[in-house]
Amino acid sequence: MLEAMEMILALAERFTKLEFIDFGGGFGIPYRPEQQEMDVNALGQQMTERFEKFCKEYGRPLSMKLEPGRYLVGPAGFLLLSVTNRKQTPEYQFVGTDSGFHHLVRPTMYGSYHRIWNASRMEDELETVAVVGNVCETGDFFSVDQGNIQRELPKTVVGDCLVIADAGAYGFSMSSQYNSRPRPAEVLVQDGQARLIRRTEHYADLLRTAQELN
Ligand SMILES: Cc1ncc(COP(=O)(O)O)c(C=O)c1O
User: Fold this and answer.
1) Ligand 1 atom with minimal separation from the 169 CA
2) Which residues, in sequence order, are CB contacts of 115 under 8 Å at separation 6+?
């Protein structure tokens, strides 16, 4: 972030009539268990110091703008899936679910890693599985990790609830109705209370904007 800030400042100093400098987003979150949370206070302090130095050299105070997206909402969102089927092939133990890349496209689109838990049996013995969606596309995997499509999870049974972590950013907003699959409901949990804030889509919603032909 500090290196990116230097690049933006190097560009900004060429403009004489600035009111603010917008450093955009890109504040990371720990998607992987071994990754650490960003020290936002330390970064804030360093960015402030650097910005104040810049303003001094620039000759007048400017506003600093930031556009943190993922950092604010990513870890707050979880995608809940139900296990619908299991399928053993010579190579893989597939765990099928009632969701897919139409609900969370990051693993399919970027190969992004998302933590997955089996909320129905957190403590059971582990097995190596490939967690997949219900869309007939070869890339419809949730358990992606840099080309590896398998993950160790507590033994899964049909009906179990799987949880995909860090789905609050670029989850619902990048979702689609691909293959005529409706989107899921959204539930807000606040102070221990769960509230429905967006209902499940139905098949009628898929046709809602279609014009009737006479
Ligand atoms: C213009 C702009 N600002 C901010 C963001 C947020 O980025 P992030 O979620 O990585 O913080 C984005 C993401 O696409 C963006 O396009």
Assistant:
1) 9
2) 31, 32, 33, 164, 165, 166
Q: Two tokens at 70?
A: 């993922």
User: CB of 71 closer than 6 A to ligand 1?
Assistant: yes
- Structure pTM? 0.92
Nearest CA to ligand 1 atom 5: 25
Query: Pick the catalytic residue: 7, 122, 136, 213?
Result: 136
Q: What domains sit in the chain, N to C, each tagged with a CATH number?
A: 2-72 (no CATH), 79-194 (2.40.37.10)
**Closest atom of ligand 1 relative to the 69 alpha carbon:** 9
- 45-72: per-residue pLDDT in tens? 999 999 999 999 999 999 999 999 999 9
The finding on whether 38 has its CB within 6 A of some atom of ligand 1 is no
Q: Mind listing the pLDDT tens digit for each residue in 178-197?
A: 999 999 999 999 999 999 99
* CB-based burial, 55-68: b 16+ in 10 Å, e otherwise: beebeeeeebeeee
Interaxial angle between packed helices 2-12 and 40-58, expressed in degrees from 0 to 180 and rounded to the nearest 10: 20
Q: Is the CB of 23 under 6 A from ligand 1?
A: no
How far is 2 from 4, CA to CA, in rounded Å?
Answer: 5
